[in-house]
Amino acid sequence: MRPSLVISATLLLDGIFFVLNLSVAISGGSRAVLSQAVYTVTDLIGAVMILLGHRASERPATPQHPFGRGKERFFWAFTAGLVTFSLAGALVLVEGGLQILAPRPITDLVPGLLTVAGTLASSLGSLLVVIFELRRDGETVESLLASDFQGMKTIFLQDVVSVAGAGVALVGLGLVRISGQAFYDGLSAAVVGFLLLLTGFTLAAESRALLVGRAMSEREGREILDLVSDYPFVRRVVGMQSMMLGPEEALVTLQVNFLDELSTDDIEIHIDQLQQFVKGSHGQVRHLIIQPVSLQAEPTRGTSPPLPPSRPRSRERPERPGDGPSAKG
Prior knowledge:
CATH architecture of the largest domain: Up-down Bundle
Shape: elongated
Oligomer: single chain
Low-confidence stretches: 312-329
Structural class: mainly alpha
Helix content: 55-70%
């Protein structure tokens, strides 16, 4: 996926419809239209934050940040989720509640309906851009939601909530026009505010888990364990820990018991080979630490997923560079 393209499209559309919604909300007094203005401006701010996180995460590793800055994406997605959804949701919910308790007359309903309809069309367009980018990369909405791409996930959910919110606001204004009751205007704004709050808390909780060091998925961890456990000169994997450093970056540590007949030099050769195998088959493993341990070693705290059983076996001593008939002179 091309994050810059998705974010740029979001910024452009949000900027246009913020001005339109705010102008109509001020002139007509509709809280439903105001909810769309509030949401579009916070969506605009959120998209800028996600773009900042994407740019910051591309900075190279330094002695102060030896594993890179991939978690910048998690931090800015967390911040964008709070600003875009939680703060905007609280403001819109309060405004909607005030309109329900003390309804104010709404004028210029037709411009309001047209503006909200335009916001709905814009949100659908932005949503289609994200879906197109997903299909371009051979992915699906399900894979995006299950991934650690918090920035793109936030933008996708922003578009989904924007479509739902604009639809609710459009229905609310339609009911006001039919019944003449401004109560429906406040009700629709309150519903939009509730949707924003619910989505914001969900995203914030998920981003928080990644910020504090969530492990790889159990499926990916099991694949790595199986790969290492099937290596001929490994008796058992005693422990494994992992941590996501970014949407496509992971740190993995393994405590491995090698066969007893291997020398220190042999073990070093096999550690190098295992690192090549694991990194070659799992591109997101950017940092892999393999620690040789005894079979009696206790699994390191936090080991996950469940480790495979020990497989006592014997293998001939492996050939090292320089061994063999050609090296005997």
